[in-house]
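Second attempt. The first submission of Nucleotide pyrophosphohydrolase had a stray character pasted in from the spreadsheet, which I only caught after the job came back as garbage. Lesson logged: always re-copy from the clean sequence file. Corrected sequence (111 aa) follows.
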Amino acid sequence: MQNQPSSMERINKFRDDRNWRQFHNEKDLAISISIEAAELLEIFQWKTPEEATQDFEHLKEEIADVLIYSYMLADNLGLDIDEIIKEKLEKNNMKYPVKESKDSKKKYNEL
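This time the job returned cleanly.
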């Protein structure tokens, strides 16, 4: 049984098949993440959460765009997505201990 390509491998193949690597520097990828995040926010603008999530396909596409550019930026910087998420969750665990933060929306410096 053959392993399926990872998300990063599929993203890079899509990019490389079109020779777009030349356009995907760190600055432009960071800008693209922000633009796509704004498009995600636009889905929710002036709507209730229930109204915004009715067009689920559009929502999925915008989340995917944010993630694709984020993956590409991490790859450009030689970062392992799983590792940086693990490290960040460990830091968040220290900032937001369960005992103080459970059922609270306070920021870590207010706990």
